[in-house]
Write a structure and sequence with these properties.
Structural class: mainly alpha
Distance between the termini: 54 Å
Radius of gyration: 22 Å
Strand content: under 5%
Shape: globular
Helix content: over 70%
Strand order of the largest sheet: 1-2
Largest sheet: 2 strands, antiparallel
């Protein structure tokens, strides 16, 4: 009989629990040679894990965005469908980030804390005081630089802009770019394999980071973490239970009860697996059988949404940036919060649809405003439950988008195909 293997989720939870226990044990015996040795080993292991996240970030984001947009070339006859789909995705993601940042500015979890473990990383932090006009001039001018320079210097936003333009050019080139589109898809598959390898190292990295954090920091931090989790859950549920059903009702007249009844199985699967990619077959079946969405539309909107439509992830990552800033005693000005706003939207586009991989793009959001990437360790204890909730909202957004596209761009069906 074949032995049952533990899932990655179980290993990550086990690593987090072990890190908490180890940190408490080390806290009870401060200053001993053994404690110093273990903390040194934790610093090395945690540093390697964070380094791996930083290493894979740029290839992942650039390839994910470029290949996702390039795949639209395979749907050239569905112009109305993909334009409306992208418009819906962009609009709802913008709403989700606005809700998240408003909630964080209202409740300010973590304010007044001083997490000393990041002192060295924050030593060079400098907040520029720019007017709104100066911000947009500097922001726009910084978007268009040599893409190789952007990759080498980990300048995320210019690299994302190049990826978007490159993907759009592949679509415009049509058949001439077919081989390059195939190459991009293959490269994306390779990078995703590397991401999976890194995620299998996550239990060890998380154990080391959490042990170091618990052993050396004020335990009031975990109370602030609970408040942060409550704010994020509230913002995510508001978006999932109010914003998305409201948009659906206004644009399609599909009521919330009918909608949730139709996609219930997909949302439960998303919550249980924390993977929008793994949920795709269930999502498309629910849409086709229960809500009568054309299989061609569902087959386009849902896979694209699993790549670029991550409202729940955008909520979490924008909120986390403000939370980390509060913890390290940094008051992000209006300019920096705008950067967080746009970067969280773009990070959600590049986030893989697999469990806990959002921590990869979380590095992108933190670094965009000069916050320490190592701060992802603080969020690990609550990442798994929040991941389940935000994945369900991500999948819900794909379902709502499919229904709206069916209503406004689907056209009449003939022989199971969409007519323009």
């Amino acid at each position: 009989m074949k032995k049952k293997r533990f899932s990655l989720n179980a290993w990550i939870l086990g690593g987090a629990a072990a890190g908490l226990f180890l940190g408490m044990f080390l806290r009870l015996s401060p200053g001993t040679p053994g404690t110093s040795l273990v903390l040194g080993a934790c610093a090395v292991a945690g540093g390697v894990f964070i380094g791996l996240l930083k290493m894979i970030l740029m290839p992942l984001v650039v390839l994910s965005i470029s290949s996702g947009i390039a795949n639209l070339a395979d749907h050239a006859r569905m112009t109305r469908v993909w334009i409306l789909t992208l418009l819906f995705f962009a609009t709802t993601t913008m709403f989700s980030v606005a809700v998240s940042m408003s909630a964080m500015n209202a409740f300010r979890p973590g304010a007044g804390m001083d997490v000393g473990i990041f002192k060295s990383e924050m030593a060079s932090f400098h907040a520029e005081g720019l007017s709104v006009g100066q911000f947009f001039v500097k922001f726009l001018s910084g978007l268009f630089i040599n893409p190789f320079q952007a990759l080498a210097e980990t300048q995320v936003l210019p690299a994302v802009v190049f990826a978007i333009l490159f993907g759009a050019a592949l679509v415009a080139a049509g058949e001439k770019s077919r081989q390059l589109r195939v190459l991009l898809s293959e490269a994306m598959a390779v990078v995703m394999t590397m991401v999976e390898w890194i995620m299998w190292l996550a239990p060890v990295g998380i154990l080391a980071l959490l042990a170091q954090l618990v052993a050396t920091q004020d335990l009031r931090l975990f109370g602030s973490l609970g408040t942060f989790a409550a704010v994020v859950i509230g913002a995510t549920l508001f978006h999932g239970l109010v914003t998305l059903p409201g948009v659906l009702w206004v644009l399609t007249r599909i009521g919330p009860f009918r909608f949730f009844q139709g996609v219930r199985e997909a949302l439960i699967t998303a919550f249980a697996t924390s993977s929008s990619s793994a949920t795709m077959p269930v999502t498309m079946r629910c849409l086709n059988e229960n809500l009568k969405v054309d299989k061609n539309i569902g087959g386009f909107v849902v896979p694209l949404g699993a790549t670029v439509n991550m409202d729940g992830t955008a909520i979490y990552e924008s909120a986390a940036a403000l939370f980390v800033a509060n913890l390290v005693g940094i008051e992000l000005n209006f300019t920096q919060q705008l950067i967080v706003f746009f970067t969280a939207m773009l990070a959600a586009v590049g986030a893989p649809g697999i469990p806990s991989a959002g921590m990869v793009t979380m590095v992108m959001v933190l670094q965009a405003v000069g916050l320490p990437a190592e701060a992802v360790a603080i969020l690990i204890p609550i990442d798994r439950p929040l991941d389940a909730i935000r994945t369900a909202v991500n999948v819900e957004g794909d379902c709502v988008g499919s229904c709206i596209v069916q209503r406004w761009a689907g056209g009449p069906r003939q022989n199971g195909k969409i007519e323009p």
